[in-house]
Amino acid sequence: MSDFVQNIWYFAAIRSDIPKSGLLRVIIAGEPICLGRRDDGTYFAMRDICPHRAAPFSAGCIKGGTVECPYHGWRFGVEDGVCQEIPALTADSPVEPDRIRVRTFPIAQTDHILWVWFSSDKRFQGEPPIAPPAFPLVDTKPVIDDGVRLNCHVDHAVIGLMDPAHGPFVHKQWWWRSEASMHEKAKAFEPRERGFAMAAHSPSSNSLAYKLLGGKPVTEITFQLPGIRTEQITVGDKTVLSFTAVTPEDADHTRIRQLFFTDHGLFKTLSPILARGAKAFLRQDADMVDLQAQGLRFDPNLMLIDDADTQAKWYHQLKKAWAVSHETGAPFVNPVKAKTLRWRS
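Request: output the structure for the sequence above.
Response:
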């Protein structure tokens, strides 16, 4: 699991995923994590394995500031992960529950989105050195919410997400693009915090879906570690934000969550129809990942070409630079330089 990005905020869930009086299990970078709400409505995150017999806490319940394991009722504090009660102990038992601890994770909320801090130090309990990402409009409820589990390593999922050339071949919808409508593209890219952006520009003329928004849309697409892609489309004074989080579960499985936020009235009205399109996109990508796996199982040498695959190269460079900065203590230096990339799609 060492090739997963560490010492960074990972997307965990949105607020409505967590039952008001229940618990939610997520898996991030090989760690099962139990998410829940405290009595005051704030959130907590702890490792979803009871150290007694490995039952998941997420199948248990919350009791008075503790999570109770469903197997034997062991209870652990949601603040520090310290065991507070072992019901089976007799009064003269030499076992000291408060010497037993479960890993807890810093958790942060930016409006509807919940983030978990994933540290390389499993004992980390302090304040993370960087704030979680923040985006416009996420204080509103998402109008489209979809997700899919991919059978691949996170690197293949991220690279597929930022691949600009696969659209006419994988996403062959009449309302999007086709092989017969391929144009040469030239897009300006620039470094951004822990990532890069395709700078604000007018969408390509062969992207019919943008025309539904009316006016003269301008879009900016950003990527930042560990695997967050956003597209912010502005039409006059209205905005549509597409938020996509790519989160590794383990070495062979990756979860993608796509959310759309907007104050654009027509987009809200059309959201049931647009949601079907977004769902089709994700499933087509998932099907292609399964096809790709047929070749990957033979461990082939893979090629990345300029300029269509430059974003993939940047992703690997960003991962390496982030890891080096934490291994050496040196400041992180973004390896991405401003550049115009050209390809056909």
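The chain has a mean pLDDT of 91.
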